[in-house]
Amino acid sequence: MLECELLTERDKRFAVGFHMDALVEALDAYCSGGRRLVDTLMAQNIAKSVKAEIVMALERATLELRRVSDGPLRRRRSSDAATS
Q1: Could you give the 3-state DSSP secondary structure of residue 74?
Q2: Domain boundaries, the chain
Q3: What is the dihedral of CA 8, 22, 26, 50, to 10 degrees?
Q4: Which pLDDT belongs to residue 84?
Q5: Cα separation of 78 and 26, whole Å?
Q6: pLDDT in tens, 49-83
Q7: Chain-wide mean pLDDT for the chain?
Q8: What letters, b where the CB count within 10 A reaches 16 and e where it falls short, cover 9-30?
């Protein structure tokens, strides 16, 4: 199972400004958490005619955890049923 995340110039990590040092720092932080950069693209909002924005797609593999019972299943004996 993959967990995906998008990183853009509007990410909170770039609140001070989008510059190369901040980008490298953000990518290092994501990669140290097990994510990897899989794609980068430029996106533009046609309706607002603002500058294009860099969008980076990151992913990481996650383990699918299944709930395990608290203990082995036991058959109820007829003598247990009589005492309950």
Answers
A1: coil
A2: 2-61
A3: 0
A4: 47
A5: 63
A6: 667 788 889 999 876 655 555 555 444 455 544 55
A7: 76
A8: beeebbeeebeeebbeebbeeb
CA distances from 82 to 22, 53, 76, 77 (A): 70, 71, 10, 9
Written as six digits, the tokens of 57 are 């797609």
Q: Is the dihedral of CA 75, 78, 79, 83 positive or negative?
A: positive
* pLDDT tens digits, one per residue of 9-45: 888 888 888 888 888 988 999 999 899 999 998 888 7
**Which segments of 1-84 are extended strands (E)?**
2-8, 36-43, 53-61
Angle at CA 69, nearest 5°, toward 65 and 73? Answer: 145
Are the C-beta atoms of 7 and 53 separated by less than 8 Å? Answer: no
Do residues 59 and 3 touch, judged by C-beta distance below 8 A?
Answer: yes
